[in-house]
Amino acid sequence: MDSTNSSSTISISVLLLRVLTFIFLLIALIFIAINRVTDDYTGDKLESKDVYAYRYMISTIVIGFAYNLLQLAFSIFTVVSGKRVLRSDGGYLFDFFGDKIISYFLISGSTAGLSLNVELRRELPSNTFFHKANVSASLLLVGFLFTATASIFTSFALPKKTNN
């Protein structure tokens, strides 16, 4: 397999991973953003933004989503044109470190949401509010997996490009 074909395969794989990350983060954001419940007895309303762990989870989703959207545009450009937007060594470093940092950020948001759900299930009866938050945290976890996998692919290009 020649280097052009290998580079094209990696570019397409990264694009696919970015599209999947985009989809999972978008669905996770929708689930957590529309998540609210009203207490039948008191009439009190609880929304995701009222819970600090869920607020942090929303922040990680939004930041991860914004970064992924930028990288998605870069990946589409690379696949379509065969050239990179950021052609210098700094572009490869940006991809590599950006993917690493964002993937760790996404896993921290997922962990915050999932761990809170585990603790709350011990104390409170099961309800749809916590189920929706759990779904969102799980989708965020899958988004992390796709971003972490993309970081593996971006690490393949790093030694070849920065050492030349």
Structure description:
Keywords: Cell membrane, Membrane, Transmembrane, Transmembrane helix. It comes from Cajanus cajan. With 164 residues, the chain is mainly alpha-helical. It has one domain. The chain has a two-stranded antiparallel sheet. β1 and β2 form a beta hairpin.
Work out the helix count.
4
Strand order of the largest sheet: 1-2
Termini gap = 20 Å
What is the number of E strands?
2
Radius of gyration: 19 Å
- Mean pLDDT, to the nearest integer, reads 87
Pfam families: CASP_dom (PF04535)
InterPro entries: CASP_dom (IPR006702)
Membrane topology: Multi-pass membrane protein
Transmembrane segments: 12-34, 54-80, 101-118, 138-158
Give the topology, please:
Layout: H1 3-33, E1 36-38, E2 45-47, H2 52-81, H3 89-123, H4 128-162
Antiparallel strand pairs: 1-2
In short:
With about 160 residues, the protein is mostly helical.
Summary keywords:
164 residues, mainly alpha, two-stranded antiparallel ribbon, 4 helices
